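From the pipeline queue, job 12 of 40. The input is one protein chain; the requested action is below.

Action: predict structure.
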Amino acid sequence: MKPGVFIVSLLVILLSGCRESFTDKVKKTAVEDTAHQVSDSNYHPEGKTIGERFAVPEGFRRTTLDNPSFGHYLRNLPLKPLESKVTYYDGSNKPKGTVYEAVVDLPIGKRDLHQCADAVMRLRAEYLFSLKKYDSIHFNFTNGFRADYSKWQKGQRISVKGNRVKWIHSAQPSNSYADFWKYLEMVFSYAGTASLEEELKSISLQELQTGDVFIQGGFPGHAVIVVDVAWEDTTREKVFLLAQSYMPAQEIQVLKNPNNSGLSPWYRISEIHQELRTPEWVFKNTDLKRF
């Protein structure tokens, strides 16, 4: 459970992360038919990034991504070795099983904060931070307070007392990564799926591109991010890869496809009808959004 809640918004903040609410029956449905190994033709074991590790299905080719772009950044996320397991914030491991195919090699801190929406916000912020686009890094807390990294960078800090939130100048100006991570942990503490969903723009499945987010804001809620896209020349059909964090706080993972073992870990747009079934959540086909 995330610490530091607003008194008036207590239930909202406590439930703003990835909270499990599905019945055992629905959970079972979301992961059935997933006990498979990814096809040898779908990955290169020695690949050190998402783009290097996962080959596109036959007849498809990756979309062109400019460097630097958010999509290019995501496609080139570093991966841990093939058999690595996801690590929780406390150092324990999440069994690989039917959930994920690869583990993104990024630290997540020692607190139970880096959950689903947090991982999405973290990736967006890390990308902008790498380009020194500090003014573009900002997220809203669940109560509507806007947390701008540019203010944090100048030495301001966020004071939370009850339901009152304000900026106070209490630190030296810094753009160090250590202080940037402290900013992110503050965001993780008070933002979640509900606030992030409100910040993103709805798009159609046919518009899907790398960097888009399937998100259900709520109490509970969940979010996964599109980390690569490929398309077929003749039909223009798209396939895509998804990544997530979950609860308790854990490393980002590239998800298996529980709907099509031969295609996994790629997902096919034409196979999404009323819903998108992922290993640990079921989204509606209208849940796709963009930064």
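Job complete. Helices lie at 10-14, 24-31, 50-53, 70-75, 116-130, 149-153, 177-190, 193-199.
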